[in-house]
What we know:
Blueprint: E1 2-4, H1 6-13, E2 18-21, H2 24-27, H3 34-48, E3 52-59, E4 62-65, H4 69-78, E5 84-85, H5 90-96, E6 101-102, H6 104-114, E7 118-120, H7 131-134, H8 139-146, E8 150-153, H9 162-171, E9 176-179, E10 198-200, H10 203-215, E11 222-225, H11 236-252, H12 260-272, H13 274-301
Parallel strand pairs: 1-4, 2-3, 2-7, 5-6, 7-8, 8-11, 9-10, 9-11
Antiparallel strand pairs: 3-4
Residues 22, 24-25, 29, 86, 103-104, 122-123, 125, 138-140, 157, 187, 258, 261, 265 line the site of pseudouridine-5'-monophosphate.
Amino acid sequence: xxxxxxxxxxxxxxxxxxxxxxxxxxxxxxxxxxxxxxxxxxxxxxxxxxxxxxxxxxxxxxxxxxxxxxxxxxxxxxxxxxxxxxxxxxxxxxxxxxxxxxxxxxxxxxxxxxxxxxxxxxxxxxxxxxxxxxxxxxxxxxxxxxxxxxxxxxxxxxxxxxxxxxxxxxxxxxxxxxxxxxxxxxxxxxxxxxxxxxxxxxxxxxxxxxxxxxxxxxxxxxxxxxxxxxxxxxxxxxxxxxxxxxxxxxxxxxxxxxxxxxxxxxxxxxxxxxxxxxxxxxxxxxxxxxxxxxxxxxxxxx
Length: 302
Ligand code: PSU
Ligand code: MN
């Protein structure tokens, strides 16, 4: 059921640093062809740092770590026609031999099965605004509570309730690291008004934190919140107006379930023009860089 590329298999077996990457960001998070260009660039960033990239997806029913360029192209061109697969969707795709784009939750599952401990993405899912009545809480949070993989991200978009997302992570005992910052970032913006408890400044410090987490028997994931580089930062207030509009549109269109996040991402992209996409691409590449450096330190410690 698990299928690793020859390169990824060899790297894991010989203890080389490997970084997992998700594919919902390819099919549902960005338009074509920027999605494909970004997916390829992210892999290159990881290689340049001396680590091996493992983009994950469900391919013909196989939980795959290390998809090929042509498979990446298929997911990029297919866009929203490719099923978005979180934890509960995986059995359907595996049983029917289908393709699927993996979210943070399902990429963590594949990474853990394969023996990969570090994963880079853009933003994680979280507690949606209004969740006290809709109960819309991303399965990503539940996965972080139970699967020992470190996720390097630029925080969460303020389409979510950032405060409640942090509360949820605290309840489930998930360490949240601020990488070179004490502010929890809000994806497009370097700060959200919320603080992190733990600031760490080097890849070695992060690797030691991961070792400590898993060394004491914890099975949880770790969030490594890495703010977007300053030149691409968008002011929080500027994005907030756009996000409010996107949320209003989602409400009017009565979007529900797993369609909510892709709808909001696409609407924000439309409303904000090229700026937000550029920021999105750059922060993903920067997360990949930091993830590769952490994976390298972790492989040297083990
Ligand atoms: N947030 C982003 N970009 C993304 C996602 C979230 O800024 O592409 C994607 C990720 O794949 C994440 C998923 O795991 O959306 C969460 O979806 P949901 O809220 O339906 O769990
Ligand atoms: Mn949801």
